[in-house]
Design goal:
Largest sheet: 5 strands, mixed
Strand order of the largest sheet: 3-2-1-4-8
Strand content: 25-35%
Low-confidence stretches: 1-11, 350-362
Helix content: 25-40%
Radius of gyration: 22 Å
Structural class: alpha/beta
Number of helices: 10
Oligomer: single chain
Number of strands: 13
């Protein structure tokens, strides 16, 4: 993978010249992704120390249920990719966490969790006692405001204990467990440290689902799950062309979508063939991307209503489809608003002047 080759070049800096951070680890549906950042001791600039993206040898459920299999996979990645130390920051696998937008009334002398408790009891019943719950306020409010809303992360205590035990058997010391929307907010905040007013919509596309997160300054205004993912696009291509899903994915990775949507008589035959393939793929996937665009318009309308007419200032795309050529232009045609490909390694030394797609985790 091109992004990984570029990331690993930064490991040429000797470890003695850097302050090494914890290892970020995520077990995705089809891959184990790991990255370790560092700060240069001389000027404090961030740099990628090491990174790895390893295909899973089996489905995620089987992997997590087999401590030996997971330990072998993690430790092989650690040794082969020059990771340092055992400190780790991770996230509970997405299929083990339920994220809900919940409204509630907070009375005087109550904290948010106390105020939300009756709603949680109604939602979970007896399961509440065996659940691990965290909440993040998602609407700007002052302390005197009664009506509130929060993004609530719900998982079972057993799933948390099982996952932490699995990482412990890998020899890792877990500093913290992260929640996806908070990680995205932190990335956006790092990209614009002085901007506390802009409204940003982030489209994070996974394999089966996508998550639309609206960030207003330092607060999360909305986090919405939609039924659109990499598989949605791949299956549409595979069905239309009567090819395997892997063949469809290979076509998308190689050709992407026609970014210009116009004919140039000066291009060579080989370029014309590539352009023709990109145009064909664009036509095939238009229907499925239209579904995503409809969800995006709903979010734009919601944001305008919640902020009393204030529109989205910027839309970022990240995740499983972000590296496909022309995907940002394809969405731009449907929404009118420009789409930017987000670089999760923004600000790191290796990416001081990156191509928009450099360093994207696929």
């Amino acid at each position: 993978m091109k992004w990984l080759e570029k990331v690993l070049k930064s490991a040429s800096l000797p470890s003695r010249s850097k302050r090494i951070g914890p290892i970020g680890l995520e077990v995705r549906a089809y891959s184990l992704n790991m990255v370790q950042l560092a700060l240069k001791k001389d000027d404090g600039l961030p740099v990628i120390h090491s990174a790895a993206s390893v295909p899973l040898p089996c489905d995620r459920e089987t992997l997590l249920a087999s401590p030996k299999l997971l330990s072998n996979l993690v430790n092989k990645a650690l040794k082969q990719n020059n990771f340092i130390g055992k400190r780790c920051v991770s996230t509970i696998p997405a299929n083990k966490v339920s994220l809900r937008n919940m409204s509630y009334d907070r009375l005087a002398k109550q904290n948010d969790m106390q105020a939300l408790y009756p709603r949680l009891r109604e939602l979970l019943g007896e399961k509440l006692e065996s659940s691990v719950i965290d909440l993040i306020p998602i609407r700007p409010h002052n302390e005197k405001q009664i009506s509130r809303s929060a993004l609530v992360a719900i998982t079972t205590r057993n799933d948390v204990d099982t996952y932490l035990s699995a990482l412990d058997r890998c020899g890792l010391d877990v500093d913290s467990i992260e929640v996806g929307p908070i990680a995205i907010r932190r990335l956006i905040s790092g990209m614009n440290p002085a901007d506390k007013q802009s409204k940003i919509l982030v489209i994070n596309v996974g394999h089966h689902k996508s998550y639309l997160t609206v960030i207003w300054g330092r607060r999360i205004l909305l986090d919405k799950e939609v039924s659109f993912g990499l598989n949605t696009v791949v299956l549409a291509i595979a069905k239309e062309l009567d090819v395997t899903e892997q063949a469809a994915l290979n076509l998308l990775n190689k050709y992407g979508f026609d970014a210009q949507n116009e004919t140039d008589s000066t291009i060579q035959i080989e370029q014309a063939e590539e352009k023709g393939m990109s145009q064909m793929l664009s036509e095939i996937v238009t229907a499925v991307f239209t579904q995503l665009a409809a969800n995006l318009r709903d979010v734009l309308m919601y944001t305008a209503a919640e902020t009393r007419g204030g529109g989205i200032d910027c839309i970022y795309l990240m995740g499983s489809v972000a590296h496909w050529p022309g995907v940002d232009t394809l969405l731009h045609r449907m929404l009118v608003e420009p789409i930017k490909i987000i670089n999760p390694f923004y600000g790191c030394l290796l990416y001081t002047s990156p191509s928009p797609r450099d360093g994207l985790l696929s």
